[in-house]
Amino acid sequence: MYDTIINGNSIFEMSKLEAESIDLIFADPPYYMRTEGVLNRVEGTKFNGCNDDWDKFDSLEDYENFTSQWLSQCKRILKPNGSIWVIGSMQCIYTIGALMQKLGFWFINDVVWHKTNPTPNFMGSRLNNSHETLIWAVKNKNSKLTFHYKTAKELNSENDVKKQMGSVWNFPVCSGNERLKDSDGNKLHNTQKPLKMLERIIAISSNIGDLVLDPFAGTMTTGAAAKKLGRKFIMIEADKKYCEYGKLRLDSIQFEDSNIARAEFDKKPLRVTMPEMISAGFFKVGEWFLFKDGRKIAQLSADGKLSFNGKIIDMHTCAASAKGLKAKRINGFDVWYVIRDNQLVSISSIRENFREKLNLS
Ligand SMILES: C[S@@+](CC[C@H](N)C(=O)[O-])C[C@H]1O[C@@H](n2cnc3c(N)ncnc32)[C@H](O)[C@@H]1O
Prior knowledge:
Layout lengths: L3 E4 L2 H6 L6 E6 L32 H18 E11 L4 H10 L3 E10 L15 E8 L10 H7 L1 E2 L2 E2 L5 E4 L23 H11 L5 E4 L6 H8 L3 E6 L2 H12 L22 H6 L8 E3 L5 E5 L5 E3 L2 E3 L1 H8 L14 E4 L2 E4 H14 L1
Parallel strand pairs: 1-10, 2-3, 2-9, 4-8, 9-10
Antiparallel strand pairs: 3-5, 4-5, 6-7, 11-12, 12-13, 13-14, 15-16
Helix pairs in contact: 2-3, 5-6
The structure holds S-adenosylmethionine.
């Protein structure tokens, strides 16, 4: 069962799902805000924060029990190498984090979502809350994490400079056209999350075709990002109205194929050997291997090694030795050139041509 919206209680609905069947979970659970009274803006109008019935609990113990139950179900249905992201504010994230560790989840990162357009603190009585925290964890200490490092770098590029992605993420709170409205034109949901943030999470920590689950789906932001990136999804939401609007939202979204969706940047290149390239005619036995400055250094032998100073050694050891380096080996593909059409050509570019030929055939 996938690409579906389930209108129900997530603890019960998850209990019906098969164990170890989900690749990635994103959970944006009730915050248990504990707000009292009405909050007014400076000019006197009422501010609609998160004061919904779904956010009310009788006590902290009640909230802890609820959190423990849904997290236990997540642990059960997550695949051994699956991972989970949970987002929360200061009111809940410490409780959630402590329970996650108790249940054996293994933390990968905590990420600060810095809201670039936070709601002001209207009373000026404390700092304005301009961030929420995400916890990224795997099922247990031995899980093998899916993390597309280079995809994350691509998503973190500025003016063509790709930077390692850090744990502080800047996104505005949903507003304008992104904010879903109900049929009366009012804000549909008080805590709709930015689509771009969900796209980032799904792109860097899952693979195309994976199954993504959100137990507190709200406006189905997670499903929207999953569908756009070619992942399957299961969205669970207790409120019928959110399910109905969420279905309209998901129906309007198409898979957008891209290198990001397929994590192409992180794909390991095909492993090829020198003897394979020799027998395919890409190199000739006996030909000279040269340095970039044109000096002839070693000759290729039939087993793909190099003949250098009367010895037959592999091209990486030969590169280090011929350069007189302390290191025993360096990457020969960064060092060696051969002559093609009277020009120096790097052996690395010849290897690329060979890979291309193999990929095409
Ligand atoms: C913080 S909101 C999630 C918002 C969502 N991430 C989005 O972008 O729209 C939490 C949602 O969980 C739902 N909810 C609360 N308790 C639930 C439960 N026990 N089972 C399923 N859904 C629940 C609420 O109706 C609410 O829509």
